[in-house]
Design brief:
15 helices; 5-stranded mixed β-sheet; Lysozyme; single chain; mainly alpha
Length: 438
């Protein structure tokens, strides 16, 4: 069978495998190899080998079929191709060494070239890790997370004082001061304050009439389930233009972030890369099998395992059978549209659910260029809402959610991301991020 030219070489360090796409593959040094071979006029075929020495290779897990004739196995999810500039060296090494030294030695040289290019193969003979089964995960004994938007007590006091000032109830009537307090509470996601301020702007109740800003405020309250706001929004129409300042994240978010992120042990030099935060221990109520699964699979998606566990804790409290009123399902609470978008056929299957949630989280981190706060806000409220409000949406639930994620991830505010997954949000230069460390 004629083999095509090498089109890509991929390394899976977590699984201790090397994947050669579009070419035959050979065993070397106890490394497990996987290859995709295209026969002229035929569909793609796969074969998997594990080698005990440099001289021999045998089929692995497909003993009933000969090499390069095995049925397609369930290959792992996305890997990273070798940079294109390295491919000529790979082709040359394969061609020369197959002629002179034989296939095994030829691959040894190719692996050496890959190591020189920054993609090092496995150093020791290690079998692929066995993923723990997630069947029959225990239901959590702890109560589920509190549902619905609950604003802090101080925000509720601002709204109550504003209402008294607006109507002159126990206080001298002062609509300007009332609007200021409503605005302050609205920035913290208080839906009733957003509605009340929009009503004042629509009806010129002691302040200047501004229906454009009122539409934004009605929309924010309606998106949190405030029925009267939805009715008013239907009369005014959908908001246009940038959101008003009363819906931007409050400056207090900088202090919130500083209280969550642990301070460095020593001051960093100007321009130096900040030290990597030590990952926190897994949550106490996280099932051991699930923790082990996330630790093994998260690197495939270029994710920190403790960040994934923080999302699972916030979304479902580790309940694999969790089902929300909005039909969000499973451990990572995937709604049907998101599940279909990332190839999840059964969102109540724990393995599919966690893989789908990690694929979505990886996409969000690429879309928001590694900003964990924006990615968490988008996971909760949708990336469209984050783009529309140019930051964390002014929803009480979402605001609480993002800081719960950051705290659960040990203060992780930024995360590595793969720019090849998707283009960044076109609104990134406009994002309002008071927590952002410049």
């Amino acid at each position: 069978m004629a083999s095509a030219s090498v089109t890509a070489v991929r390394v899976l360090p977590t699984w201790r495998r090397v994947v050669v796409m579009g070419s035959r593959s050979w065993g070397v040094g106890g490394v497990t190899l996987e290859a995709e071979v295209r026969q002229p006029g035929a569909v793609r075929q796969y074969a998997v080998w594990r080698t005990a020495s440099r001289q021999a290779a045998r089929p692995l897990d497909f003993a009933a079929c000969p090499p390069r004739r095995c049925p397609a196995p369930d290959l792992p999810v996305p890997t990273h191709p070798l940079p294109a500039r390295s491919l000529p060296a790979v082709r040359s090494a394969l061609r020369l060494q197959r002629q002179r030294l034989g296939a095994a030695a030829g691959l040894a040289l190719v692996l050496a070239l890959l190591a020189a290019g920054g993609l090092a193969p496995a150093r020791a003979q290690l079998p692929p890790p066995v993923l723990p089964t997630l069947d029959g995960l225990p239901r959590p004994n702890t109560p589920p997370p509190e549902k619905g938007p609950v604003v802090p007590a101080r925000v509720e006091r601002w709204r109550q004082e504003a209402k008294a000032l607006e109507h002159g109830d126990g206080l001298p009537r002062d609509p300007v001061r009332a609007a200021e307090l409503y605005c302050r509470a609205a920035r913290h996601g208080d839906a009733e304050a957003q509605y009340s301020l929009a009503w004042m702007k629509t009806n010129s109740r002691g302040i200047e009439r501004n229906e454009a800003e009122a539409a934004h405020l009605f929309a924010a309250a309606a998106e949190q389930g405030y029925t009267q706001a939805g009715n008013m929004l239907a009369r005014l129409g959908q908001p246009l233009g940038p959101p008003p300042a009363c819906l931007s994240p409050p400056e207090e978010d900088r202090a919130v972030a500083a209280s969550i992120v642990p301070p460095p042990s020593r001051p960093a030099a100007p321009g130096a890369v900040p030290p990597r935060l030590a990952p926190p221990p897994p949550p106490r109520n996280a099932p051991e099998a699930l923790v082990r699964f996330v630790q093994l699979v998260a690197p495939e998606y270029q994710l920190e395992p403790h960040l994934v566990l923080a999302f699972i804790a916030a979304e479902s409290n580790f309940d694999a059978a969790a089902l929300s009123p909005k039909n969000a399902q499973g451990l990572m609470q995937l709604i049907p549209d998101t599940a279909a978008r990332f190839g999840v056929r059964n969102a109540m299957d724990p393995v599919q659910n966690v893989r789908g949630g990690m694929a979505y989280l990886r996409w969000l981190l690429a879309y928001f260029e590694g900003d964990v706060v924006l990615a968490a806000a988008a996971y909760n409220a949708g990336e469209g809402a984050v783009d529309r409000y140019r930051g964390v949406p002014p929803y009480a639930e979402t605001r609480q959610y993002v800081w719960k994620i950051v705290q659960g991830a040990g203060g992780l505010m930024t995360h590595a991301f793969d720019a090849q997954v998707t283009r960044p949000s076109p609104r990134m230069p406009l994002m309002n991020r008071p927590w952002h460390i410049r």
